[in-house]
């Protein structure tokens, strides 16, 4: 990869790297539009309850393993190359799904795809956080969420269109299209630069500084911003090396606070219950008396809403605090869950044979309660798209130090996927056993997420990823008193520029040994 020209425009880098997120989106909705089709139900013998839960959660099971291996691979090979490695798992998993001959091979293929998603979902945000400028970091990472959502939307309607194909060719054709984004990603990756912070971490200082200069200053290694930021990176790495290695570094000297923040924000993203809608909205809308193709089209609208409102956040995310979005988003999602659950509990009528023969949907509401369920299901997705969906990935990528980011983000993704797997297994049986009460459970969990966000998540917006470390140190101000912005980098850049103006550049050059070009 090193011999190919590198394109360092951060938006281009983000658009290529986040195709890894598009793979995630493809795999999510590769089931959503298909699970209610006659072709799928007939071929796989109308799976329901635990069996359908196993199919739905197989992706998350593989992602748990992918997240486990992602950190060590990323630290050894680099962020970019770990994403390339993940693509190989996707190619094999997709091939197995396309050739499936029953339940076991379908689950196996989704597990293999999940290994890829486990690696990319943890390391793409790491890569983007380490590449992006601090004032655009949220916007760059949110492209990952947009890629996921575009993948969901595209694959959902591919699945919907393939529903008109007779027999197993219907779902085989839909699943076969998953090769396309993976191949595109593998073609684009060699043109991306390595993370300058990873290069610094492994001792490749000259390459790190040049890459940093290419990203921040058009290749000028003497730029004041490059010098100031490199000083921060090198000082932080020196302190991290003194702190030692091994798993203890995740709990020593206040690091446990960052570990808790990174893991919990990812866990809450799943426990918020939004993915119940993402994965199973066709089931929810069947409960609301929508059936057949109308159900699939109406359920598909959520993915368009997802894209529209996450795109809105693309323009505002770096001007809006992370804390406020996590706190108010959790409360609003909880309210939506309570309304949906209240309608299903109060007005739901049991349908023992399943609505339209779907063994996973055993209650139905009609009239105004049904419209309320549909409206608040959409509202839940809108709030999620504006808040927890993008911000959980951004926040989890920001809280780690350079020395712990790859493994730390892998641990955070591990929390996400463990709960994703658990909820994937839990949801279909819950639809059968506790019915509308499942949404009450998620509403309570959303309140819990809001409480933790308020008391333990300091504001990271507008700060360099080195400055974020200070927010978690012993004696730092309480999380609820922290504010966005206030970066010291501007003052450091000004000091460097002043030194340059006074002819003291030689002193600065000694701080960057062998890296800055001589005048």
Automatic annotation (TrEMBL):
<dbReference type="Pfam" id="PF00083">
    <property type="entry name" value="Sugar_tr"/>
</dbReference>
<feature type="transmembrane region" description="Helical">
    <location>
        <begin position="438"/>
        <end position="457"/>
    </location>
</feature>
<comment type="similarity">
    <text>Belongs to the major facilitator superfamily. Sugar transporter (TC 2.A.1.1) family.</text>
</comment>
<dbReference type="InterPro" id="IPR005828">
    <property type="entry name" value="MFS_sugar_transport-like"/>
</dbReference>
<keyword id="KW-0813">Transport</keyword>
<feature type="transmembrane region" description="Helical">
    <location>
        <begin position="83"/>
        <end position="104"/>
    </location>
</feature>
<feature type="transmembrane region" description="Helical">
    <location>
        <begin position="173"/>
        <end position="192"/>
    </location>
</feature>
<protein>
    <recommendedName>
        <fullName>Major facilitator superfamily (MFS) profile domain-containing protein</fullName>
    </recommendedName>
</protein>
<feature type="transmembrane region" description="Helical">
    <location>
        <begin position="259"/>
        <end position="282"/>
    </location>
</feature>
<feature type="domain" description="Major facilitator superfamily (MFS) profile">
    <location>
        <begin position="13"/>
        <end position="461"/>
    </location>
</feature>
<feature type="transmembrane region" description="Helical">
    <location>
        <begin position="324"/>
        <end position="344"/>
    </location>
</feature>
<feature type="transmembrane region" description="Helical">
    <location>
        <begin position="140"/>
        <end position="161"/>
    </location>
</feature>
<dbReference type="InterPro" id="IPR050360">
    <property type="entry name" value="MFS_Sugar_Transporters"/>
</dbReference>
<keyword id="KW-1133">Transmembrane helix</keyword>
<dbReference type="InterPro" id="IPR036259">
    <property type="entry name" value="MFS_trans_sf"/>
</dbReference>
<keyword id="KW-0325">Glycoprotein</keyword>
<dbReference type="GO" id="GO:0016020">
    <property type="term" value="C:membrane"/>
</dbReference>
<feature type="transmembrane region" description="Helical">
    <location>
        <begin position="54"/>
        <end position="71"/>
    </location>
</feature>
<dbReference type="InterPro" id="IPR003663">
    <property type="entry name" value="Sugar/inositol_transpt"/>
</dbReference>
<dbReference type="GO" id="GO:0005351">
    <property type="term" value="F:carbohydrate:proton symporter activity"/>
</dbReference>
<keyword id="KW-0472">Membrane</keyword>
<feature type="transmembrane region" description="Helical">
    <location>
        <begin position="12"/>
        <end position="34"/>
    </location>
</feature>
<dbReference type="InterPro" id="IPR005829">
    <property type="entry name" value="Sugar_transporter_CS"/>
</dbReference>
<dbReference type="InterPro" id="IPR020846">
    <property type="entry name" value="MFS_dom"/>
</dbReference>
<feature type="transmembrane region" description="Helical">
    <location>
        <begin position="370"/>
        <end position="396"/>
    </location>
</feature>
<keyword id="KW-0812">Transmembrane</keyword>
<feature type="transmembrane region" description="Helical">
    <location>
        <begin position="110"/>
        <end position="128"/>
    </location>
</feature>
<feature type="transmembrane region" description="Helical">
    <location>
        <begin position="294"/>
        <end position="317"/>
    </location>
</feature>
